């Protein structure tokens, strides 16, 4: 019990000492002391206080020998405290200011990583995802032998899947709405066509090909007599396309159900002639 109380006292003592030192340096506004303390906080992992001091002194060290080190630490402290918008900005500034720095490669990766961590879930706007993909791809192209190369590739694949899911879910939404609002099925089929073309290797490709059959069949069934034949033929071509890539599928039962409806529809159209 005494040992525990002593430990708590020791922690509290050092916290108060550190806090008073921090306040003292801020109050005295001594540039070199703030620089030394900021670096010490950074080395100790106290990135919050480190970045506060770096923010104050960074403009005053621009162009000085210490400027490069300070600029990198400032950006990294933002990154380590998950202030990714600020870290992306600071790393970009660092790269532009010190293009020949030994830290350029790492800074380029961490700038891209900042955008990666800002990328939201697939259902939201993907502007930051696009930016992350751009930055990561630039890094991969610029540093093919980097120690961060594999991680950058993994990030790219992860973000691409997110983009695929976004596009696929939009197409699925059109398909669902089309069951109650038939004109929307045109948008569903168009979205599915675009998705299949844009993401040929997608993990959602099989389902997309199947849903396209479903949407096209429903559209044909509810078409006027003069358009029915062409739309059933289009639905049939979608079924054949599906079977070309997936002779056996987890959607076998459902796909064959719509195939039967397509055949019946074609027979009905032929009976009208």
Could you please describe the fold and organization of this structure?
The protein is mainly alpha-helical and about 270 residues long. The chain has a domain at about 165-273: Serine Threonine Protein Phosphatase 5, Tetratricopeptide repeat, CATH 1.25.40. Helix content is about 80%, strand content about 0%. The protein has 12 helices and no strands. It has helices at about 1-30, 30-45, 45-55, 65-80, 85-95, 105-120, 125-140, 150-180, 185-200, 205-220, 225-245, 250-270. The radius of gyration is 30 Å and the shape is rod-shaped. The relative contact order is 0.05.
Question: Brief description of this entry?
Answer:
The protein has 273 residues and is mainly alpha-helical.
Which keywords apply here?
mainly alpha; single chain; Serine Threonine Protein Phosphatase 5, Tetratricopeptide repeat; 273 residues
Assign an overall shape.
rod-shaped
- How much strand content do the residues show? under 5%
Extended strand count: 0
CATH topology group of the domain at 163-273: Serine Threonine Protein Phosphatase 5, Tetratricopeptide repeat
DSSP helix count?
A: 12
Order of helices and strands: HHHHHHHHHHHH
- Uncertain segments are 8-17
CATH superfamily of the domain at 163-273: Tetratricopeptide repeat domain
